[in-house]
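In response to a reviewer's request, we include the raw inputs and outputs for one of the modeled complexes. The two entities were modeled together in a single run.
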Amino acid sequence: MYEWVRKIHLYMGIILLTFVVMYFVTGYVIIHPDIPLLKGEQTKNTTRMAFDLSDISDPYELSRQVQSKLELPGKRATPRILDDGRTKHQYTRPGEKFQVTVSALHDSVVIEHTQDDARRTLIGMHRLHKYGGGFVYNIWVLLLDLTSLSMIAFSLTGIYLWYKTSQKHRLGWLMLFVGYGYTIATVLYLAHAP
Amino acid sequence: MRNFILKIHLYGGLLCSPYLIIFGLSSLQFNHHFVQPNDDEVTWTHPLRLDPTIEKRNVGNAVRDSLGLIGWGPWWNVEQDETETRVEVVRPGKKYQIHIKDGLAEIEETRLGYLTIVNSLHALTRVPNAPFMSVWGIYTEICTWVVLFSAGSGVYLWTARKSERHVGWLLICGGAGSTLLLILYVLVWG
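The model returned the following structure tokens for the whole complex.
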């Protein structure tokens, strides 16, 4: 049992090491938005062009065709249908966003392109969630799922390994008590404070 | 040296164990949305007269302070007309819809449930008007560094073992290589 748990802790760590580090470094940028080296300008530009996809009515298929025809990179978001019949399609990847508005007759498009600075690019990497939007993005989200499961597994296997390998448990129990005690107190505070 | 690093890896990990579980659960929630917030509503009233000189931008936070609430009062959710002011105050675990009319505030309090609170603790650094929650910001900071340290120290501690060297290097190179390629692909061609 001990050997299995140790192997799970070790191999999961070394396989997912880079993704875990990426996820925590990009998360650090979110909680410290004022890191000066990463701050820069966000640039936006808008292009209008004629277009013809009048034979497609399904908004999801339209979203795929727009991306393919305009050769836009990024993860496809769920298309939005506006009251006047236009549809909005969004394609994002870390550092870049394209918002395409297709006219009601599907004969013209307005493309808004946003280029992010380094800070927003890193935040974009951290916030790439949910399946769908392309094969590569599904692999990314799968890795994020594995990393999430590994966090839970690191925590539980770590406690087991500590308990089995340490002869003195007092400091370990204290750390667990402080960590879990404070977390439970915080959850209760947020549930019951005004 | 090895012993010292092992101790930090071990005890830092134990201290941050609940945070890792929160990180894991909340990240899974971001992808799958398997927990829906509760909508337990409670309505209560409180006498409240708004200072008419307060700018619209500050009305949400002023109402929050007057009612002794914690959280954010976003200006974009403030609606005012001649007779009534509507404000929303939000925070992990609860949200409040507040209607102020004739010197009385009617507060619809929605309790979102424990699981929603757990999800919102992911990288939370502060909650306005709640000094207790600033400690969570420190805990977030500590746990971020502990995870980054543990990633490095875990590799260091593993290299000190003679067994499992080959398979370990194979996995570490395969894992790191493919992850870096994926990141590069998404950033450049994605």
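As requested, we also summarize the result in words. Residues 1 and 28 of chain A are 36 Å apart (CA to CA). The longest helix of chain A spans residues 135-165.
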